[in-house]
Amino acid sequence: MKLIIAIVQDEDASRLITKLMNDGFGVTKLATTGGFLRAGNTTLLLGVEDDRLSAAMSVIEKVCKSRKQVATSPTPLTTGGANGMYTPYPIEVMVGGATVFIMTVDQFVKM
Ligand code: 2BA
Fold first, then answer.
1. Per-residue model confidence (pLDDT) at position 25
2. How far apart are CA 82 and CA 70, in angstroms?
3. pLDDT of residue 80
4. Which of 55, 56, 70, 72 is the least buried, fewest Cβ under 10 Å from its Cβ?
5. Rounded to 5 degrees, what angle do the CA atoms 68, 74, 80 make?
């Protein structure tokens, strides 16, 4: 068995969960925050049998599309400065898609 940890955009989460559930996958949704943008994203936990791993990955790939987004710089250009202030500046980042970790599960127990 594998544990899939998928970090996805909030915008894609609802559709992704619906599709995964319809395809018979168990899903747990966590509200998370990205370290770089400091914006909300969604982390999904899925325990899947090995032979269903590629099916789950295809659903994630199909639903989660990458897009460009202009965001405000989340970190100072320089540390310190005259008075410790910094000016936020716009940056373009690719968001969406999915950041996926796949781990082998030693044991799966439901009590
Ligand atoms: P964030 O850390 O908020 O990053 C959002 C997006 O900002 C990233 O998308 C990437 O396009 C961009 N970005 C991140 N760090 C950057 C940097 N130092 N300079 C320029 N642009 C940068 P993704 O790479 O698709 O990541 C989406 C979210 O997945 C991340 O949100 C974070 O929550 C998570 N993530 C990504 N890689 C991770 C990792 N190695 N470990 C744990 N979580 C990760």
1. 98
2. 28
3. 54
4. 70
5. 150
Give per-residue pLDDT as tens, 85-109: 667 788 888 887 999 999 999 999 9
Strands 28-33 and 40-48: antiparallel
* 35-86 per-position pLDDT tens digit: 988 999 999 999 999 999 999 999 999 999 888 888 877 665 555 555 666 6
Probe residue for ligand 1, chosen from 37, 42, 69 as the CB with the greatest number of ligand atoms within 8 Å: 37
CATH, domain range 2-66+95-104: 3.30.70.120
**Per-domain residue ranges of the chain:** 2-66+95-104
Element (H, E) at 92: strand 90-96
> Ligand 1 center to residue 100 CA distance, Å?
12
Mean pLDDT value across residues 29-33? 98
Question: Is-contact 44 28, C-beta < 8 A?
Answer: yes
SS3 state at 37 = coil
